[in-house]
């Protein structure tokens, strides 16, 4: 039951749902997520850690960058099912649509230079 509760708690925050929906489209680093969501970097990092602990996201280091992506495989069957369902949910939500439309303009080089 712990795995189920962990996944449900991770998905109980609107910002974490937005992160999941953005990661459905492309891998993103913390700075890109921070810029898109308008949240502080430590807040985004905490959200990512909770999503990671639930088996919903993974990451890969690429030099100085850490790229976050949806988990390809998870030890939690609940995480896999919820990721599958979320692919079909909320695509018409106004906030999600706006975030997805902003994804192409997110440029980590420009963000970190500012």
Please describe what this structure looks like.
One of its GO terms (molecular function) is DNA binding. Residues 1-90 form the HTH arsR-type domain. It comes from Desulforhopalus singaporensis. The protein contains seven helices and two strands, in the order ααααββααα. The protein is mostly helical. The protein has a single domain (2-113), classed as Arc Repressor Mutant, subunit A, CATH 1.10.10. The chain has a two-stranded antiparallel ribbon. The radius of gyration is 14 Å and the shape is globular. The model has no long low-confidence stretch (mean pLDDT 92).
Largest sheet properties: 2 strands, antiparallel
Total number of helices = 7
Under CATH, the topology can be stated as Arc Repressor Mutant, subunit A
- Strand composition percent: 5-15%
Name the helicity range: 55-70%
What is the CATH level 1 assignment? Mainly Alpha
Q: Could you state the CATH homologous superfamily?
A: Winged helix-like DNA-binding domain superfamily/Winged helix DNA-binding domain
**Shape by Cα distribution:** globular
Whole-number count of domains: 1
Beta strands, count: 2
Give helix and strand order, one letter per element, not per position.
HHHHEEHHH
- What is the averaged pLDDT score? 92
- Rg estimate, integer Å: 14 Å
Unreliable stretches, pLDDT < 50, 5 or more residues?
none
The helix/strand class is mainly alpha
Keywords: DNA-binding, Transcription, Transcription regulation
Organism: Desulforhopalus singaporensis
GO molecular function: DNA binding; DNA-binding transcription factor activity
Protein name: Transcriptional regulator, ArsR family
